[in-house]
Amino acid sequence: MPITIKETADGTGIVYGGDGIVTSQQLLDAVQLIRSFGEKTQRWMFCLHDFSRVEDVECSADEIRNLASQDNSVLAPMFPKGFVVAVVTSKDHVFGLARMWQAQAEDTQWDIDVFRSRTDAEGWVRERVQANFGAKVLIDRGAIESRRSTRVRLKIHIEVRGATPPISCEGETRVVNCHGALIMTADTLRVGMNVEIHVIATDKRALAKVVYVDPDLPRHCGIGLEKPHNIWGVTSPPDDWKMDDALANAGVG
């Protein structure tokens, strides 16, 4: 199962999780997934890595070092000073890898620790966020931001059309959910553009707005659909997609 990343209900942090076997490539892909949140990351104060349902992580020592290097160069500048990271796992091997990553990620200057239980991790996160930011945070397992659905990594061919300014180009999705997608396009888009997305495989179309453009990779951008809908053809979507689809069909959202 792909790694999922969800923003907490109060918008102060994220919960990052997975199931079964997690690979080093999935961990690296998650770095780009976090980048797709754009400016939202600047107000996050913590990340809770809940690996309590992960059976194992397939990652070598070199891959751990590479992941820590990516965290330092890509993610650390996106988060505020004093950012808090807690990792939860009951598996000895995963616990050891998390400790190795913690040591390698020292240059991020994040406040990091590894725990055997989520309860202990949540308590520590609250204490450290209070100490580092003077703030209280909500870490409710069921209280995930209702306006944003689970993100799924998916590469499918799309066409993007816009009227102001006129544009028509091909593209490909990288990450999708019921509310939008992270995409790569042949031409550069800009934040605020209104576009139509045509998914070739499903022949579905939807109106969307460009909400984020990667400053380093300007052809990589985030779009928000005007109405939440599974236009992507994901055959077994997460449960929260089904609710969003039902609301869209009822004319809500």
CATH class of the largest domain: Alpha Beta
CATH superfamily of the largest domain: STAS domain
Mean pLDDT: 86
**CATH-defined fold name of the largest domain:** Transcription Regulator spoIIAA
Q: State the low-pLDDT regions, or none.
A: 142-147
Secondary structure: number of strands: 14
Q: Give me the oligomer status.
A: single chain
C-alpha end-to-end distance: 28 Å
Biggest sheet character: 6 strands, antiparallel, barrel
Strand arrangement within the widest β-sheet reads 9-10-11-14-13-12
- Please trace the helix and strand order, writing H or E for each element: EEEHEEHEHEHEEEEEEEH
Do you know the CATH architecture of the largest domain?
A: 2-Layer Sandwich
- The coarse silhouette is globular
Radius of gyration: 19 Å
Note the beta-strand portion.
25-35%
Integer count of domains: 2
Number of helices: 5
Structural class: alpha/beta
Task: Describe the structure concisely for a colleague.
With 253 residues, the protein is of the alpha/beta class. The chain has 5 helices and 14 strands.
What keyword list fits this structure?
253 residues, Transcription Regulator spoIIAA, Thrombin, subunit H, 2 domains, 5-stranded mixed beta sheet, globular
